Predict the structure.
Amino acid sequence: MIIGTDSRTKNDYTGNSDVILFAQISADRSQVTLVSIARDTYLPVGNGRKKINAAFPAGGRALLVESVSGALGVPIHLTAHTNFNGFIGMTRVLKGIRVRNAHASKVRVQSTGRVLDFAQGEIELTGTDALIYARQRKGLPQGDLDRAERHRALVVGMLTGLQKLNTVS
């Protein structure tokens, strides 16, 4: 399971789990299937039914894994977890992430007023631009569902980038 929390502090891995991806690797290791779990999905969490992104702040990785594993009916053997800074760092190590962007969109960054234009088709993202791309949901045709599609595209782009790094080394 891949977990992305909304913590903005360098070594702080608390906060809400705004990215929850279940990854299944085929037995022959030739394919990876990614399933997004929207952060506002109501699932059994602890003794109640809550939005799944409430599981992480309530009980950490263990409660999130237990909740997702129980809902999907499959064991989760491994987790990867990052926050805003870790994600930005990964994009820099990979010297950008190439993704197929399904929907063109524009985003105005509230803190700076800068406007980002994400064209439809193949684009390359790095640093805070990649984070802004990952977090956008307003202005997309299907909101959080398109956001989840972007998360999967970013993971695929990261895996492709890691394969390229591996062949260069």
In short: The first helix runs from residue 55 to 72.
